[in-house]
Amino acid sequence: MTGPGLSSDGAGSPDAGRYGERVFRPDEGGEGDRIDLGALAYDETTMARLRLLGAGPGWTCLEVGAGTGTVARKLLDEAGVAEVLAVDRDVRFLAAHPVPGLTVRQADITSDDFAPGLFQLVHARFVLMHLPSPQRMVARLGGLLAPGGVLVISDAVDLTTGSAPVTPYTRAMRAMWQGLRDTIGTDVSRVPRHPELLRAAGLESVAAEIHVPPLEPGSAISAFWTETWERAREAMVGTGLVDDAQIDEAVAYLDSPRCTGLSPGMLTAWGRKGGP
């Protein structure tokens, strides 16, 4: 899961800022722990897919929006890849856990001068949903693939839309998505189009899958959303969809056996660059 994230220039609102500035600041106490809770929920699924796509010995990898570096380190330790370049706009969490084969670079991959070379694997998880032009970014990341290399992108799919039952949980999630769109430009409504963007970028063998971790009391994913709501509380209340008391009610509901909600799914899409 990405940490402080990358540039977002205002997809949802003229006043929208950047991930890691108005919301989810890396200097805010416990932010690294929040990211790691998401990693506990999603890393196993991510690593299984990356290995199935061939990530292994000899591969060079680019990890975009690397956050605390859990995927980058697992690519080295579990998949046995040769090298991982882990990039984020703020690398404090990455720099705290150095391992052999891991190169950390503080950079904004939306910048025109970002040219790190070519890789067998380019991976970005929970990054594009925060950016104003996913289509442009998919094309850019695809351009960093060596022949035969694979681009893998994962983002959230909202399962608390209007057709979902109204509960304290769904009310809070709807307010969260709206609040994040208003403040930092996050837009998950575009995520189901990711496979189409990969194909438009000229990649081959495009496919996708969705993983939905169960919301269970005491689970990592439930704790992740609790922490996420706390950091996004001001933005959520600002939508007018919830107040502080309703967010507190949602936190209690999420940690109770009454909760029957669906966590946002993680849609993972991939495509491969053709050979010479």
Secondary structure: helix percent: 25-40%
The end-to-end distance, rounded to whole angstroms, is 32 Å
Query: What structural class results from the helix and strand content?
Result: alpha/beta
Treating each run of at least 4 consecutive H or I residues as one helix, how many helices?
A: 9
What's the pLDDT, averaged over the residues? Answer: 91
Low-pLDDT sequence parts: 1-16
**What integer value in Å does the Rg equal?**
18 Å
- Percent of residues in beta strands? 15-25%
How would you sum up the major sheet? 7 strands, mixed
Lateral arrangement of strands in the main beta sheet: 3-2-1-4-5-7-6
Number of strands: 7
Order of helices and strands: HEHEHEEHEHHEHHHE
Structure overview:
The chain is α/β, with parallel strands linked by helices and 276 residues long. Helices cover 35% and strands 19% of the residues. The chain is built from 9 helices and 7 strands. A 7-stranded mixed sheet has the order 3-2-1-4-5-7-6, sandwiched between helices. The longest helix has 22 residues, at 31-52. The model is unreliable at 1-16 (pLDDT under 50).
